[in-house]
Amino acid sequence: MTPHMLTRSLDRGATIFLLVVAAIGVLIPLSNLLLPAGSVLQVPTYLVALWGKYVCYAILALAIDLIWGYCGILSLGHGAFFALGGYAMGMYLMRQIGTRGVYGNPILPDFMVFLNYSKLPWYWYGFDMFWFAALMVLVVPGLLAFCFGWLAFRSRVTGVYLSIITQAMTYALLLAFFRNDFGFGGNNGLTDFKDILGLNVQAEGTRAALFALSCLALIVGFLICRAIVSSKLGKVLIAVRDAESRTRFLGYRVESYKLFVFTVSACMAGVAGALYVPQVGIINPSEFAPGNSIEAVIWVAVGGRGTLVGAALGAVVVNYAKTFFTSGMLAPYWLFMLGALFILVTLLLPKGIVGTFNAWWDQSKEKRAAASTSAAAEDGVTQPKMAE
Amino acid sequence: MPTNLSARLCTFVLSLFLIAFALPAFAGPFEDAVAKFANDDFSDTEEAIAAVASSGNKLAFPIISALQDGRLMADSDSKKVYVTGADGKSIDAATGEAVASVPDSASAVRLNNRLRRSVDAALGSLTLQSPDVGTRLQAAQSVFKSHEETALEPVDAALAKETNKSVKTALGEARAAILLFKSDATEVEKLEAVATLRARGDQEAMALLTGMGDQPASVTKAAASAISSIQSSLAVWSTVQNAWYGLSLGSVLLLAAIGLAITFGVMGVINMAHGEMVMIGAYTTFVVQEVIRTRYPGLFDYSLLIAVPLAFLVAGAIGVLIERSIIRFLYGRPLETLLATWGLSLVLQQAVRTMFGPTNREVGNPSWMSGAFELGQITITYNRLWILVFTLAVFAILLAMLRYTALGLEMRAVTQNRRMAASMGIATSRVDALTFGLGSGIAGIAGVALSQIDNVSPNLGQSYIIDSFMVVVFGGVGNLWGTLVGAFTLGIANKFLEPVAGAVLGKIAILVLIILFIQKRPRGLFALKGRAVEA
Where does the record locate the signal sequence feature (chain B) (predicted)? Predict the structure, then answer.
C-alpha cells in the first residue's frame, strides 16, 4: 500500500528533487568532515550552518505551500509555528546547559536567575528530556494550529480574514514573548547553548549531523506532502481551494479537511524551527514578527505555489540572494530588491519559477506530441496512396 | 517656568529703579537683616530670610527668589549683598541701587535642605499678595503643599484681602492644610479643615488626610469619611480619565484606519502599504516644517494647515500611481494584492530611509497644539484634543463626500455593481484609481496628525498597519460607521484593560478578543448583507 502510494506520488520532477536533496545531505557533511581544511572541495563549517538554515526554511516553505498551494489557506502567521517549535527545542538546549551557565545554577537557566525566579515555571518541566522536547516540537504548534483552525474554519473565516487573524495571532505571540515575566527569556530569547544529546552544538561533527538531519526532514516532509496531495484527500483539498462552497454542497466536511492539513502544516513548521535553532544558536521573539511570516509566503510565491518542489527551491533562492546582497556593499538596497521581487513575481510570474517552467515544459511537450501525431497522420494519408 | 520668573523679575528690577529714585536709602532693620546673608552662617541666613520675608520691603521678593536660584551674592568682607539678575545686571540687595559689577570676592549664599524649605515658605508667603492672579494662585498652592505653620499668618492676611474667587478657594485650602497639621489648632478648626479638603477631593487632599497623624477622635472620624468620599470621587474621575484616553487612542486608530476603510473596506484591496502612506504624510509635514523653519519662521503656527492639503495631494498622487501601475492588474486576486503591496511597503520604507535617514525626524508642535488644560481632576492635552476633533472632521467630510458628490456616487455605484455601473457610462477604471487615491490621501492626512504624537521614522507606518486592519475587520468591511465604532470600541477597551492587565497584556488580550470575535461574526460588527457579501 505505502510503496504504491509513494510511486504514484512521485513524478520525474519530484524524483530529481529528492535525489538532489539526498545528495546534498550526504555530500556536504562528508566533504566538510573528511576532506582537509583549505581543500577546494571542502565545504567550510560556516557554510554548512548557513545551508542548514536554508534547508530549515525550505521545510517551512513546504509547510506553507501545502496549505496555500493546495488548500488556498494563506497563513500569515506560520512563522509563529516555526518559532514555537524553535522555542521547544531552545528550552531543551537551555536545560542542557546545567551548571555551565554564568550563574552556575543547576536547574534555572541564566535569565531566570537574573530575573529572580525562585523555581522553574511549570511549563519548563520535562524539557530536560530530549524525547519530551521533541514531542513538544510537534505538539505545541500542532495544538495551537488545531485550536486556532477549529475555531476559524468552523465559523467559516476564509480568505483575507483568515490571513489577517493569523497575522494577529503571531503579533500577539510576539508581544507576549517579548515580556520578561512570560518565562521565555523576554527580549533576548534563549541562547548560549552548549550540548544537544550530549554532543557539543558548536562542534563540526554535530553541525554536519544536524545538516544531514535537516535534509532528511526535508525529504520526509516532502514525501508526506506528496502523499497527502496525491491521495483522494488531496483531491478534496484542491476542490476546497478552487470552489469551497461547491465542495461543501457536495457533502464534504470542508472544515475537517482544512483543519487536518493546517495542523499537519503547523507541525512541519515546528520541526523546521526545532532544526533551525541548534544550527543558528539562538531563538528570540523577533522570529514571531509578522514580517517574517509574510517573507516566508513570498518564498513560496517565487518558487511556485502548489508545486512543493518550487516552495523549497524558492526558499533557498530567496535566502541565498538575501545572504549575498545583505553582506556586500549592496546591503542598503536589499529591501528595494526584496520589495521589487514581491511586486514583480505577483505581477509577472504568478506561477513562480517552477510553475512557469512546468507550463512551458507541458506546452512544448504538447507541441512535440502534436507535431508527431500530425506527421503520423500525414503518413497515414499518404500510405493508402502508396498502396494504390 | 524659569523664563516666566525671570521676566517677572525684570519688570521688578525696572520698578526698583524708580523706587530707588523716589526713596532715599536709609539704614534700618531691613538693611541689618540683609547684611546677615554675608555672614556665611546657616542660622544667620535663616534669621535673615525670616526678617526679610516679614519686612514688607519691595526688595524682599527679588532677594529671596535670588537666594533660591543661587543668584544672591554676598561679600563677607564688606558685608555687602548683591542680587544678580538673569540678564547679568546686578543691584545692591540692601538699597536696590544698580551696581556696575559684583566684586570678585563675593560668592553665592549657600543653602542647606532646611534653609531651602524656609526659602520656599518665605517665597510662598511673599507671593501670596502679588498683584498677579496667577502668581497668587501658585503661591497658595505651594503653601498647600508645604503646609508650614509659619505660613498661617500670611495666608490669613492674604485671605482677608483676596477678591478673586479661585485664589480665595486655594487660600482656604492652604489654610485648611496648615490647620490640619498644626498641633494647637482647635477641634472645630480641624473639622472645618477636613471639610475643606473633602471638598477639594483630589489625590493630594487624600494624601494630607491619610498622613495627618494623631488627631482627636471626631477629627479622625470626619477624616475617614472624607477619605472614602474622596476615594469614590477619584474612582469616578479615573473612569473619566480612562474614557478620555480611550477616546484619544480610538481617534488615533480611526485616523489610521479610515483610509484603509476606503481601500480595503470599499474597494476590497488589501493594501499592506497603507501604513507607508501614513508615513509619507508624516514626512510631508516634516518637509513643510523644514521649509518654514529656514525661510518663513513666522508661519510656523500654520505649518500643519499647509501640510494637510499637501500630504493629501502627495499621498493621493502616489496612491493613484500605485493603483495604475500595480493594483489594477491584481483585482480579484486579493492574496496576491496583499503580497505585492507588502513588497511595495518595503520599497517605500527603504526609499524614505535612503532619503531622510533611518533616525527619527523632529516634527514640532505649533503653539496652539502644545500645552494642556485641567478639566476637573484630569489633564487634557491640546494635541490629543485637536486630533480627536480633526479625526471626526475628516470622518464627517469623507462621509459627506461619499454621500453628496458625483464622485462619491460613482464610487458607491462601482463598489456595488461594477458591470452595471460601467453600462451606465461610468469610467470604472478611473473611479478605481480615484478611490484608491482618496484612501491613500486620507492616510497621508492621518500622517500629519500622527506626526504630532508619534516618532516620525521610516517604521511609523508599520506600527499602525496591524491595528488598522483590526479596526476595519472588527468594525465590518465596507462600512465607514463600523470603522468609527470599531476604532472607539477598541481604543476604550484597550485603555480600560491597561490598568488591570498592563499595557502589553492588555494589547494581547485585545488581539485575542478580536480573533475570537471574528469567529463569532466573521464579517465584523456591521456586516454588509445581500449580494455584496459574496462578491
Answer: 1-27
Kindly report the average pLDDT of chain B as a whole number. Answer: 82
> Which of A159, A164, A342 lies nearest to residue B343, judging by beta carbons?
A342
Cβ-based contacts of B340 with chain A (< 8 Å): 342-343, 346-347
Degrees, nearest 5: CA angle A319-A325-A331: 125
Task: Express each pLDDT in B364-407 by its tens digit.
Answer: 888 888 888 887 778 888 888 999 999 999 999 999 998 999 99
Of B326, B348, B523, the CB nearest to A347: B326
| For residues B465-471, average pLDDT | 86
Parse chain A into domains and list their residue ranges: 13-377
Phi, psi of A282 (to 5 degrees): -155, 150
Is residue B439 within 8 A of residue B319, CB to CB? The reply is yes
Q: Which residue on chain A is closest to B507 by alpha carbon?
A: A172
Confidence of residue B235 (pLDDT cuts 50, 70, 90): confident
A342 shares contact with chain B (CB less than 8 Å)? yes
For CATH 1.10.3470, list the domain ranges present in chain B: 239-533
Contact B347 A165 (CB under 8 A): no
> B330: which chain A residues are within 8 Å (Cβ-Cβ)?
346-347
Mean pLDDT of B105-123: 79
Question: Is pLDDT above 90 for A19?
Answer: yes
Q: Check residue A308 and give left, alpha or beta (phi > 0: left; psi -120 to 50: alpha).
A: left
pLDDT confidence tier of residue B529, bands split at 50, 70 and 90: low
- What does the pLDDT read at residue B498? 84
- What CA–CA distance (Å, rounded) separates B267 from B283? 26
ipTM of the complex: 0.81
Q: At what angle are helices A12-34 and A204-230 packed, to 10 degrees?
A: 170
Distance from CA of A156 to the nearest CA of B (A): 7
**Residue A76: what residue type?**
L
Question: For residue A191, what is the enclosing H or E element?
Answer: strand A190-191
Residues in chain B within 8 Å Cβ distance of A342:
339-340, 342-344, 346
- Work out how many CB contacts closer than 8 A connect A with B: 122
The reply to whether B270 touches chain A by the CB within 8 Å rule is: yes
pLDDT of A298-344, one tens digit each? 899 889 889 999 999 999 999 998 888 888 777 778 888 888 988 98
B355 near A CB under 8 A: no
A164 contacts in B (CB within 8 Å)? 469-470, 473
Hey, which residues 282-311 in chain A have their CB within 8 Å of chain B? 290, 294, 297-298, 301
Mean pLDDT of B228-240: 87
Burial of B120 (C-beta count, 10 Å sphere; 0-12/13-18/19+): middle
- What percent of chain B is modeled with pLDDT above 90? 18
Architecture of domain B239-533: Orthogonal Bundle (1.10)
Would you say residue B311 has pLDDT above 70? yes
How many CB atoms neighbour CB A372 within 10 A?
Answer: 10
